[in-house]
Design brief:
Structural class: alpha/beta
CATH architecture: 3-Layer(aba) Sandwich
Bound molecules: adenosine-5'-diphosphate
Protein name: Trimethylguanosine synthase
Family: Belongs to the methyltransferase superfamily. Trimethylguanosine synthase family.
Number of domains: 1
Distance between the termini: 29 Å
CATH class: Alpha Beta
Low-confidence stretches: 29-130
Organism: Salvia divinorum (Maria pastora)
CATH topology: Rossmann fold
Mean pLDDT: 75
InterPro entries: RNA_cap_Gua-N2-MeTrfase, SAM-dependent_MTases_sf
Helix content: 25-40%
Strand order of the largest sheet: 3-2-1-11-12-10-9-6-7-8
Pfam families: Methyltransf_15
């Protein structure tokens, strides 16, 4: 995503209130030792360029081709990714031969196939047949539906404690934020109170709870709330989150917090097929402006987690729609060197944050 503020009249109009940043996250995708992951940030303010390194260099160098390299763009369903996902290859017996090279590359890079330790013996990666069968934390065999097999191979990237008994429904697999990115969001959102408007199975809420004073996690789907509550307990943070089953837009006027976090539905895999993701027509269940206005009722700081091809001019227009205009930081999120998503941070200039 190349971007120049000159292409965006709204970003230009925001002037010094607008900035474009990047965060580069690396993860070994296998355990909580993601602590070794390194965060590097750079900032391009309007009209200027400057670096603001948060660390001194990449720590985890041992896996140049890591699991996230195979993640679907933005971690959500994308057909274009099918061709390079190890899961999609492994899942298709007709292409097993063609997959050998890729499979061997993965094994050479990371010592095993993602998740191999959790596979039952008969399915270990011995160069023979590979089937996605899994025994859960109670030892009960679980069949992995083909639709989620590629996400399942990345399960430790999504939840480092996956083997403790994490619960996901099919939609949850497509939409959960990778843990290292959720951690980054939590750090960025600070120590105060956070409302998570579309909590899903809890990937972000769990990280907020480890970082902030109080978390309110909302989802309209009761199953998601059940799973999020269960998953939060596995991380020992269940007590620090108030879970609410309900419509975020209806609840917004009744809520107050320091920060509101929104990872709204992107409207299905179609988002990746357009040059620019239009927040006025493609976000669900309501458009970007409705989301921004709902967020403003809750907090002076709004964080939106969006596709990498989001129209930055439209984000800047949201900032301009407030009087006075809000600060906007558009942060490009790279996982293992690949641009995956964008996080937009809006802030009321009259707040003390
Ligand atoms: P995506 O796959 O693009 O992330 P989803 O359709 O999975 O999007 O939606 C993300 C989450 O938002 C889901 O858990 C869904 O139940 C929840 N959600 C959708 N609409 C609302 C709403 N109005 N209020 C609260 N949660 C909602």
């Amino acid at each position: 995503m190349d971007f120049s503020v000159d292409e965006s009249p709204a970003a230009k109009a925001l002037g010094p209130l607008f900035k474009l940043t990047e965060v580069h996250l690396w993860d070994d995708g296998s355990s909580e030792e993601a602590e070794s992951s390194h965060v590097q940030e750079s900032t391009t303010g309007y009209g200027t360029t400057s670096g603001k390194g948060k660390g001194s260099g990449r720590i985890n160098q041992r896996r140049p081709a890591e699991i996230a390299d195979y993640m679907p763009d933005s971690t959500r369903g994308s057909e274009e990714e099918e061709s390079r996902s190890p899961a999609s290859v492994l899942n298709n017996s007709e292409t097993l031969d063609q997959s050998d090279t890729l499979k061997n590359e993965i094994v050479a890079e990371i010592g095993c196939l993602p998740g191999a330790s959790a596979l039952s013996n008969e399915h270990e990666h011995d160069g023979e047949a590979l089937k996605l069968e899994y025994k859960d934390h109670l030892g009960v065999p679980v069949e992995i539906p083909s639709s989620i097999s590629k996400y399942w191979l990345q399960r430790y990237l999504l939840f480092s404690r996956f083997d403790n008994g994490i619960k996901m429904d099919e939609e949850g697999w497509f939409s959960v934020t990778p843990e290292i990115l959720a951690k980054h969001h939590a750090e960025r959102c600070g120590r105060g109170s956070v409302v998570d408007l579309f909590t899903g199975v809890g990937g972000n809420a769990i990280q907020f709870a480890q970082w902030s004073r109080h978390v309110i996690a909302i989802d309209i789907d009761p199953i998601k709330i059940d799973y999020a509550r269960h998953n939060a307990a596995l991380y020992g943070v269940g007590e620090r989150i108030d879970f609410i089953k309900g419509d975020s837009f209806s609840l917004a006027p009744k809520l107050k917090a320091d920060v509101v976090f929104c990872s709204p539905p992107w409207g299905g895999p179609g988002y990746s097929k357009v040059t620019k993701f239009d927040i006025n027509t493609m976000l669900k269940p309501r458009d970007g402006k409705s989301l921004f206005d709902a967020g403003r009722r809750i907090a002076p700081k709004i964080v939106m987690f969006l596709p990498k091809n989001v129209d930055i001019n439209q984000l800047a227009e949201l900032s301009l729609s407030a009087l006075p205009p809000w600060y906007l930081e558009v942060e490009k999120n790279y996982l293992n060197g690949i641009l995956k998503t964008v996080t937009a941070y809006f802030c009321d200039p009259s707040s003390s944050l």
